[in-house]
Write a structure and sequence with these properties.
alpha/beta
């Protein structure tokens, strides 16, 4: 129960890594605002946490829209009175080889991941600076290091690492830490969609990855949630500007 009395906001919290993170933060005692582009998906995830005895609300928000991001943070603060932890899990992919990638797919991925992370961090820090404390955890990916067919996603995910290092420098004086978790292959709808695009079953994709992974399995959303919970807790109070790869491999 490291997060008792804390208030967390998790974007993309309706599904996958975000949903597992919201559950984990709630299990550790935090009240959680779950934001997702689909209000119903966010509400369902929040209802699940309440059923388990936690405190949670659902919020509809497109993280690429500044007005919606500001409203999401305002709703969280009006419901729970403060904001201690921001985790930015909202995301999507639009893969294609660079020479075939449309401008729309470039813009959508950059706007969702990079601009979205910036807008959420900007709105959250305004509350956290006044409180003189906060934890911001941004989500990158091993694809930041380069991945065929993901020029848009890779650029956004490496950009997020630079964004976090810069925010860490600017916000440290207010006792706000900013760190990054960079997952490898995690079993979610996002990787299911990748298997479909590649024309293989999800099981084939899982098995192929596991065969070359040192821990011999793919990651689960809970594997990532554990790393995020560490950065969100007081255990990480002197750790900032770092990127932790959660990929079952060096
Ligand atoms: P997921 O299961 O698809 O969950 C992402 C959630 O974000 C979905 O509910 C999605 O809604 C929502 N979303 C999409 N665009 C949004 C927007 N503009 N505003 C608010 N919410 C939005 O994916 P995931 O695998 O958990 O991914 C979570 C994060 O981890 C992402 O940043 C992803 O890039 C990162 N990541 C994932 C993996 C992996 O292997 N799964 C690896 C590395 C990094 P819709 O479903 O309606 O689109």
């Amino acid at each position: 129960m490291r997060l008792q009395e804390k208030v967390a906001l998790v974007t993309g919290g309706g599904r996958g890594i975000g949903a597992a993170t919201a559950r984990r933060l709630a299990q550790e005692g935090a009240a959680v605002a779950i934001a997702d582009i689909d209000q119903e998906v966010a509400d369902a995830a929040a209802a699940g946490i309440r059923q388990d005895g936690g405190r949670a609300i659902g919020v509809g928000c497109d993280v690429s829209r500044k007005d919606q991001v500001e409203a999401m943070v305002a709703r969280t603060v009006s419901e729970f009175s403060r904001l201690d932890i921001l985790v930015t899990c909202a995301g999507l992919i639009r893969d294609n080889l660079a020479h075939k990638m449309s401008e729309e797919d470039w813009d959508l991925v950059i706007d969702t991941h990079l601009k979205g992370s910036f807008l959420c961090a900007q709105a959250a820090q305004a509350v956290m600076v006044k409180q003189r404390s906060g934890r911001i955890v941004l989500i990158s990916s091993t694809s930041a290091l380069g991945n065929r067919g993901q020029a848009n996603y890779s650029a956004a995910k490496m950009g997020i690492q630079g964004l976090a290092r810069t925010l860490a420098l600017e916000l440290g004086r207010y006792e706000i830490t900013v760190n990054v978790v960079a997952p490898g292959f995690i079993a979610t709808r996002m990787t299911e969609a990748t298997a479909e695009r590649m024309g293989i079953t999800f099981e084939q994709m899982r098995d192929g990855f596991a065969a070359t992974n040192p821990i011999a399995r793919v990651g689960e959303p809970e594997d990532v949630a554990g790393a995020i919970a560490f950065f969100a807790s007081d255990d990480a109070s002197y750790v900032t500007g770092q990127t932790l790869y959660v990929r079952g491999a060096p």
